[in-house]
């Protein structure tokens, strides 16, 4: 497997968005006309989505049942050149773009204005596809309620493990089963660091630096290294798997920044490998029916399936009562891999209209 | 992983079915009334579906949005006791059962009367969930056309790798991507045999016998050992991945019956493992746009992901242009695992009505 640098959703920001108001007009329902797609964000993922919408126009039209038309790409900095994006589509008026769309794709990242723009689309009955894990972890239930109220839906397969279809598995494929637990390596950046240390013997601090230089870590790597990225992902999975309220505050979270070379030496001496594991399981401790969620470094036996995740790979293990143990493995990040999940959600959202 | 004996769909047969005729009445659409589910087949999978429909009634009603009511289980031999199935539901009148149902689940196996009963349901606009890989491999396009004509749908996640959601991945999750190739170990029975030989050093003939005794092989193991089961599965995957006509006749098929202990010794000496690999890839050889499909024993390096499938496990690797390499692993057979996929499809089919 070739390394796939982790890329976070673009952090482009537009101007503040006015509070969305229900409007009398709703999205077009003439199914012979092209479906107007608004793209919010033109970073690594956004540019890949724009390019692939063009390259795969014919395939997508066949799968959706009508052509898709990218009507604009809202970005903060309109002067920046973006590979694969027609400059004529670039705009800084995200509000107008949303108001003229039949489907909104949000890959700008951050809480605002992403949230207001998504709400604005949902209130118009327009489906939204997003890769924004932090926003959904914090506002998912409210956004779902708003979508339901206006007869539309919110899709975010791309928010967790890019194109590895883990959200679809816990939401749809196992809809007739009872999930007992979920565990996995859901952050490729930290896995890259830990793998460098474990398999190449690179000192921990150097591994963090190398991962940064190779694009696996952001300039501010806190979200990855402290387990905040993994926490958001396991919250989305747990909430979807059990339909219970699970928030970021519920996560027993420990990142990898406090680890030392001594920890790694000890793990190796014991025949184990340290991995940052995100997990969720149903618990009846104390007589209640609740979900436990955790993100923490764990020393795993060498032959554990999670121990075998190399470089930036992601792995998820789902234990279900009837299905048994399902294991999904793939690239958990990268512009094109994330765009693949976004396009899958676009087809899903556009087909059901 | 504990061994999961392969169980084939029940081979119960009912009386021949009259040619289905379009009728003027269609399924009920009163969404507050229970959805009437007809189950065709009461073997290992059928009994598990019946039991789980009861045990999970509340969960399923919540996910579907209305209660599900199992209205009958059609079997050939009504005198046989079937664990977990209410004897009052047992009937040998499959036609009447289908005609009174809002959703039909076919797990009887075999071509007839399964095909006629499925057609009868589809003509009434009633969705069908089936685990019948041979029937779909042979009649899938015709049945899909019939379903579309009558505004309903046909679901068969359970036909390929039980609850490992490979059909959903190639059909839905990668709907915005371009699949380059699919390869995997999709028959647990032969994998169990090959694993016994490779890892336990059991002579090939003895391994086949042991697998039979443990329930991994049918009394007539031809369908597994000659690769016919794997061929049907890779045809379903290839057809769904590329939307091109692919039939069982297109499969370059070679089973494992001709293998000898010398083959296994040679493989081991070369540091390889023999696996029965099903594969499909898009080819432009000769200037055309076609799909190649094959099932054959392959000597794989020890560290190949497919080489690591133990006992009755199944693994599928999907290469997509944007998503990269996705790998799915789990039990590919077993009554409960197959029933999990059937229940997932029931929720999917019932939700969209």
Question: Can you walk me through this structure?
Answer:
2 copies of one chain form a homodimer. By secondary structure, chain A is an alpha/beta fold. The first copy, chain A, folds into 2 domains: 35-163 and 336-351, Rossmann fold, CATH 3.40.50.720; 176-331, 2-Layer Sandwich (Dihydrodipicolinate Reductase, domain 2). Chain A has 12 helices and 12 strands. Chain A has helices at residues 44-55, 57-64, 94-99, 114-123, 133-149, 166-173, 188-200, 204-213, 222-225, 228-242, 261-269, 335-351; strands spanning 35-40, 68-74, 90-91, 103-106, 128-130, 154-155, 179-185, 251-253, 272-283, 290-301, 313-320, 324-331. The first copy, chain A, is globular, with a radius of gyration of 20 Å. The two termini of chain A are 38 Å apart. Chains A and B meet through helix 2, helix 6, strand 12 and helix 12 of A and helix 2, helix 6, strand 12 and helix 12 of B.
Average of pLDDT of chain A? 91
* Uncertain regions spanning at least 5 consecutive residues of chain A: 1-15, 21-28
CATH superfamily of the largest domain in chain A, by name, is Dihydrodipicolinate Reductase, domain 2
Order of helices and strands of chain A: EHHEEHEHEHEHEHHHHEHEEEEH
CATH architecture of the largest domain in chain A: 2-Layer Sandwich
Supply the helix-strand structural class of chain A: alpha/beta
InterPro entries (chains A, B): Asp/hSer_DH_NAD-bd, HDH_cat, HDH_short, NAD(P)-bd_dom_sf
Domain Homoserine dehydrogenase catalytic (chains A, B): 165-347
Protein name (chains A, B): Homoserine dehydrogenase
Region (Disordered) (chains A, B): 1-30
